[in-house]
Amino acid sequence: MAQPDHSPSAERNKHPILEVLQALLPASGRALEIASGTGQHVVWFAQHLPQWAWQPTEVHRGALYNIEVRATEADLANIEVAQQLDVCREPWFTEGATWAGPYDLVLCINMLHIAPWASCAALMRGAAACLAPGGVLVTYGPYFEAGVPPTQSNLEFDASLRAHDPSFGIRQLADVAAVAAQAGLQLQARHALPANNLLLVWGRPANPAA
User: Fold this and answer.
1) Which alpha helices (H) appear in the chain, and where do they start and end?
2) Most exposed residue of 53, 65, 111, 167, measured as fewest CB within 10 angstroms of its CB?
């Protein structure tokens, strides 16, 4: 059996992300991970949040192998079979799909800057549609913020992304928030994490009529 792909950055950032999730989330719930990649995150979170059920997904069929191998090796009962999901193909779930939700957490790590901008709006709409009452969408990655001088490393990273694909690039937080608002979500918390990354918590307003 071939070894699954390994992401050094996922290995580094899984620790600080978990610390925020442990403080943010209730003791138990149901989570949908978007763009699970190598599967390192979902296995780590499932190990340390054992009362949560985790549903990994990936747009790339080949990446489903990474997730399944790692989940099988970890032998964890709280990781569901990985599913193929393209956030831009709406609705996300076919009628009667057993994994359609609702979810208490939708988690998306390091996707928005390596996907076309349209995927941001699709992520917000899809998450809003499948979140349980009180549920949250958590996104993680680099962002540019108004009034916050960008780091040189993020400027260089952004340039390299756009050179690879003009539709990629580090997103302006204000633009992401505007798209989220159109889907009925607002920014509830901002956590600055290592390597110039932000973990952002999005949810429905407590008083939508306000």
Assistant:
1) 8-24, 40-48, 63-74, 118-130, 152-164, 173-182
2) 167
Among 91, 78, 79, residue whose Cα is nearest residue 36: 79
For residues 33 and 83, what is the distance between their CA atoms, to the nearest angstrom? 10
Per-residue model confidence as pLDDT tens digits over 58-113: 999 888 998 999 999 999 999 999 999 999 999 999 988 999 999 999 999 999 99
Q: Can you give the pTM of this predicted structure? A: 0.96
Q: What is the pLDDT of residues 131-178, one digit of tens each?
A: 999 999 999 999 999 999 999 999 999 999 999 999 999 999 999 999
Give the distance, in angstroms, between the CA of residue 190 and the centroid of all CA atoms in the same chain.
15
- Tokens matching residue 198: 């932000």
CB 71 within 8 A of CB 54: no
The tokens describing 108, both together, are: 């998306």
Alpha-carbon gap, residue 140 to 110, rounded angstroms: 6
CB atoms within 10 A of CB 39: 30
Report the candidate in 113, 86, 109, 104 with the shortest Cα–Cα distance to residue 172. Answer: 113
CA distance 69 to 94: 26
Identify the CA nearest to 120 among candidates 71, 178, 69, 66: 178
For 138, phi and psi rounded to 5 degrees? Answer: -115, 125
